[in-house]
């Protein structure tokens, strides 16, 4: 293993500064909430307005498919972001890397909010949109892994999953904020106002949120686990090469374990929102309200699942959640096409509750799979590679599948993703007692 000793702290006996539990929980939660707010703002806009604004020269179906393709671009960028930010996170530190990822995500999101549409600048509009989506993906690719490490490397013994739960809560709150804001706009603006300028407001608000997140993160001290690794000269020059030469198997298994989380979430939110409004005839306001209701169940499941995984282990909780997710795919067609808002709400609540169950333990599991010198790169890579399979093209393929065989085929996609994750979890070792 190639090591580096460029860091100026060579005193192995010096105790690194310690972050308070409250500061760690707040910083890991706020950062991921803001970054996922940025990401979900685009996901919601893709389902509602991106097609007509940036691809108006095509049919309605082609507009939707094009919008979903731009949505998927960010997932292709996320593994690159995990390699880039993981490199610096494992080389120079968790804190500064997390600040950079948050800043990149916020800048790209804000710029989407001021990007002219196709009617103003022609083909440059979708081209620039794709570039900004790529930038969003790079930023988010470095966010989650660093936030999970921030939480778990500062966690008290026996409570890693509980502390790892705080960055896992961020997506729930970010989604609720994004959808809640779009719901408010849909209820107060006309269709013409919403399509003309109203959809841009959530993107522009990102600038203020990022300032708050940067303030919180700049107050942090470096992770004590990383500081000790630096003092022992354990850093490697190229963490990504070390990862894929020595730790490729846990990376792939961790990625496969993540697939069900992505499939549950993006099928039940992005695809279902688009399908519910365009095909089932629900208004934007109604379906956004149903999603806001359902995501509360994800937020409730997250701390419960984290507590159970600290008590019983990561694998038992993930296996139970995965098996239930397999069955949930069979509920999609009967509940979504029931003609009842109660049936739709029940399906969304089930899927997002199971998302919380399977997602929460990942905040501890993925960092526990890797040693300190490649932990940022490894946890980020596993998390984001899973997104390519489970999320990048999920809304796009779901749109194709529903045209080929109906909603039951889309439900089968969810079940198949869950089967893959269950197999991966069975192949992983239990990590609850692993020392970081």
Automatic annotation (TrEMBL):
The keyword Membrane applies. PROSITE patterns: MFS, SUGAR_TRANSPORT_1. Its main location: membrane. Keywords: Cell inner membrane, Cell membrane, Membrane, Transmembrane, Transmembrane helix, Transport. The keyword Kinase does not apply. Pfam families: Sugar_tr (PF00083). The chain crosses the membrane at residues 39-55, 67-86, 98-118, 162-185, 197-218, 247-267, 287-309, 316-332, 344-366, 378-398, 410-428. NCBIfam families: 2A0106 (TIGR00883). This is MHS family MFS transporter. It comes from Pseudomonas brassicae.
């Amino acid at each position: 293993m190639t090591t580096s000793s460029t860091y100026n702290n060579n005193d192995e006996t010096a105790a690194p500064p310690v972050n308070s539990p409250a500061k760690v929980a707040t910083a890991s939660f706020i950062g991921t909430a803001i970054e996922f707010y940025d990401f979900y703002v685009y996901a919601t806009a893709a389902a509602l307005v991106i097609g007509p604004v940036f691809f108006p020269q095509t049919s309605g179906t082609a507009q939707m498919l094009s919008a979903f393709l731009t949505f998927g671009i960010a997932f292709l960028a996320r593994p690159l972001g995990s390699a880039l930010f993981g490199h610096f996170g494992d080389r120079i530190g968790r804190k500064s890397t997390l600040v950079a990822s948050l800043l990149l995500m916020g800048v790209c999101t804000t710029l989407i909010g001021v990007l002219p549409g196709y009617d103003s600048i022609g083909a440059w509009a979708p081209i620039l949109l794709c570039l900004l989506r790529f930038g969003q993906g790079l930023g988010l690719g470095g966010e989650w892994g660093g936030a999970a490490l921030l939480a778990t490397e500062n966690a008290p013994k026996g409570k890693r999953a509980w502390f790892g739960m705080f960055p896992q809560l961020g997506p729930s709150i970010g989604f609720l904020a994004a959808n809640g804001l779009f719901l408010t706009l849909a209820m107060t603006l006309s269709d013409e106002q919403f399509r003309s300028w109203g959809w841009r407001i959530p993107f522009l608000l990102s600038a203020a949120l990022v300032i708050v997140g940067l303030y919180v993160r700049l107050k942090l001290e470096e992770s004590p686990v990383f500081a000790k690794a630096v003092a022992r000269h354990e850093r490697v020059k190229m963490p990504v090469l070390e990862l894929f030469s020595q730790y490729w198997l846990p990376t792939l298994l961790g990625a496969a374990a993540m697939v069900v989380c992505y499939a549950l979430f993006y099928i039940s939110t992005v695809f279902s929102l688009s399908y519910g409004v365009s095909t089932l005839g629900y208004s934007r306001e109604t379906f956004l309200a149903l999603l806001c209701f359902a995501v509360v169940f994800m937020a409730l499941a997250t701390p419960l699942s984290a507590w159970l995984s600290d008590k019983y282990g990561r694998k038992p909780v993930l296996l139970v959640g995965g098996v239930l997710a397999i069955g949930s795919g069979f509920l999609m067609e009967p509940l979504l096409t029931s003609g009842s808002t109660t049936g739709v709400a029940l399906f969304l609540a089930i899927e997002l509750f199971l998302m919380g169950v399977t997602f929460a333990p990942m905040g501890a599991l993925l960092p526990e799979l890797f040693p300190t010198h490649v932990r940022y790169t490894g946890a980020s890579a596993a998390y984001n590679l899973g997104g390519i399979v489970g999320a990048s093209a999920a809304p796009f393929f779901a749109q194709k599948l529903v045209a080929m065989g109906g909603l039951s085929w889309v439900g089968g996609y969810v079940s198949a993703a869950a089967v893959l994750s269950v197999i991966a979890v069975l192949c992983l070792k239990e990590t609850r007692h692993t020392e970081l």
